[in-house]
TrEMBL record:
It is found in: Secreted. Transmembrane segments: none annotated. GO terms for cellular component: extracellular region. It comes from Galleria mellonella (Greater wax moth). It holds the Pfam family MRJP. This is Protein yellow-like. Residues 1-18 form the signal peptide. Belongs to the major royal jelly protein family. Keywords: Secreted, Signal.
Amino acid sequence: MRALSVIVVLALASVCKAALPQLRFAWKQVDYAWETPADRDKAIKDGTFVQYNNFPVGLARWKNKLFITVPRWKNGVASSLNYVDLDGPTDQPLKPYPSFKDNLVPDNAKMLPSNSSVISVFRVHVDPCDRLWVMDTGLAEIAGSANQIVGPSIMIFDLNTDQLLHRYFLKLSDMKEDTFFANIVVDVDKDTCDNAFAYLSDLGGYGVVVYSLKQDDSWRVSHHYFFFEPLFGSYNVAGIKFHWTDGVFSVALSEPRENGYRTAFFHAMSSTKEFCVSTELLRNYTKLDKTEAFHDFKLLGDRGDNTQSSASSYDEKTKVLFYTQVNRDGVACWNSNKPYTPENNPLVITDPKLFEFTNDIKVDNENNLWMLSDKMPRFIYSELDVNDINFRIFSISTSEAIAGTTCQ
């Protein structure tokens, strides 16, 4: 009994030592900054706004804006691409970006209303050149009577002017039968903004698509490591058990190496293993011998049971890879200078209530870690309690997050 008491005391000491993230935003249900109350009433009446179905999943920070995505899971999503003001109230309404007009698209639309229209977004990325990169799936009512309004596309906005700089529609050769692009990460240096590459993970078609801004072209990369692991497709979040076959979901980029290229860290969501490959291979894939290139993808290691992850983000300051832990209600990390073992992948932030299904995380340009939790399994397989807080966003400096852990 005494030995058990010592273990409990040590465990509590470890928890108390950990820095606690700051709660920045929280909502029971999200709403929008409608131009007038009459607009909101009309949207509710005609079904273009069903408040319960507006479910945030992704985020990214730029200066005083925190972008928040609301994909069209179900009918009645008023705006898919939005932001809030960092210095505003914790439960402030979402502001459609770049405008309400560009986001308020009927679920039964048969074509893109305009080139700047936003249909359905899961993930976004802010680059060092003050641009917002948006992966628009083009798909409405994903969980209902799915309507592919337009093909998947990349939208690039100038954050200083809020203008759409470019929109690129992916080619048929970029896609497979079950393709679903949910994530985007951008490889670019602030001194050569025109030479940007975006990496899009296809969780349903098990591949990665590379887009070159300079060439305005894209190509698909295939590998066995992009597939899910059959033994790790089972989840248990807040007592809700479900099974997913999501393949490569998250891609995170290191700082540039000596040769100028970065290391791309990636993993399937339904997996506990982490892999890596040089961005040199991804950028030049069409010119390479595919048999030889196959061996340039490397297994880093295994995190251990129950460590499936929906998103990751790399901090260049600490050289630490942060990633969500959906089955363990929190965030874990790995110092890229250490071997990839379960011992070197500690759970640094966790709480079964506050971090129930941590869906997305991002490290911003000031080395702050942002986290969004949203109770997704309840939304998909059960029911959200609209009288309880369902969506939370936290932040913490990356140094504080890893203090006293093996990631330090």
